[in-house]
Amino acid sequence: MGYRWMSDPTSYTNLDGQTKVGPTFNFEYSTREAYGKNIDWPEDGPLNATWWHLVTKSMSSLPPLSILPSDSIFHLQTWKRTRV
């Protein structure tokens, strides 16, 4: 479905020597909701190469800061677009 989960690997040492509890994973964001808002795609459609092509095409017409999820750890203060 395209969900992003985050875990803090520095906490894994707390798990040494026990087998009852595993690492904690926290939901970060839904890829479909974060990047697919501006494309016409079925809600239950796969996030395949065609989906990513449409997302990339849509992103190219948006202002640079609007392409990142606002609550993501990837949110940057400044974002420079460079053309190759």
Question: How would you characterize the overall build of this protein?
Answer:
This protein has 84 residues and is α+β, with helices and mostly antiparallel strands. Helices cover 19% and strands 11% of the residues. The chain contains 2 helices and 2 strands, in the order ββαα. It has a two-stranded antiparallel sheet. The longest helix has 11 residues, at 49-59. The chain is elongated, with a radius of gyration of 17 Å. Mean pLDDT is 74; it is low at 73-84.
List key phrases describing it:
84 residues, alpha+beta, two-stranded antiparallel ribbon, elongated
Chain-wise SSE layout:
Blueprint: E1 3-6, E2 26-30, H1 31-35, H2 49-59
Antiparallel strand pairs: 1-2
Mean pLDDT: 74
Tally of separate helices: 2
- How much strand? 5-15%
Major sheet strand order = 1-2
**Per the principal axes of the C-alpha atoms, what is the gross shape?**
elongated
